[in-house]
Amino acid sequence: MNFEEHDNKDDLKIWLSQSEVDQLLEATESTKQRIAFALGARCGLRSNEIAQVTPEHLADTEAGWMLRVWEGKSKPRETPVPSNLATTIRTVDDYRDEDSDVPVVDKSTRTLRRWVDSVGNSLAEDTDEDLWTYVTMHDLRRTWATSLKGAEVDAMLVCDWGGWSDLETFLDHYRGKFSPEAQRKQRDKVDWL
Fold it and tell me: What is the pTM for the complete model shown?
C-alpha cells in the first residue's frame, strides 16, 4: 500500500496494489458492496457515478465490455469494465424485481463512504495494517488510474476513460505514486535489489 499526505487535510491518499484491491473486494459483506468497490477500483468511477450505474449502462463493444457513464462530473464517457464484473451486474439484474434502468447499487454516496470505512476498519483489525483505516472511495479511483498508468496504458486514454479533461489534471491529482506492481517491475531490472 502506498500513501502520502493530502495537501490540505489531516488525511492520507492511498494507492492499493492489485492484490490489496482483491483483498478489499473479498472482505465485502454483500454483492452490492463488492459491485460498488469494483466499479471504483476496476472502472475508475466516482462515488456519485457508482450510485447511478444500471445494467443498461453496460455495452459489449468491439473494444470489449464498456460501461457508459452518462451523468458524471465530466462529459459522458465510456470506461472499460472487466467481463466478470459485467457478468455479475447482469446476473444481479436477472434476479431482482427492478427494471434494468434502476441503479444496481442504489445507495447514497454517504452509504458508500460508510461501507468502505467499515470494510477498511475490519481489514485493519484482521491484518494489523493501520493504513486500511484511511482508504476512501476516491482512493479506489486513484488506484485504478495509477494501475493503468503503471501497466503503461496511454495516459491520454486513461484521461478519456476517467473523464479528465486534460492530462495535467490527471498527472497532478491522480497519478501519484507508482503502483507496487510497477515498482516491482523496475526493481527486477536491478540485480542487487
Answer: 0.89
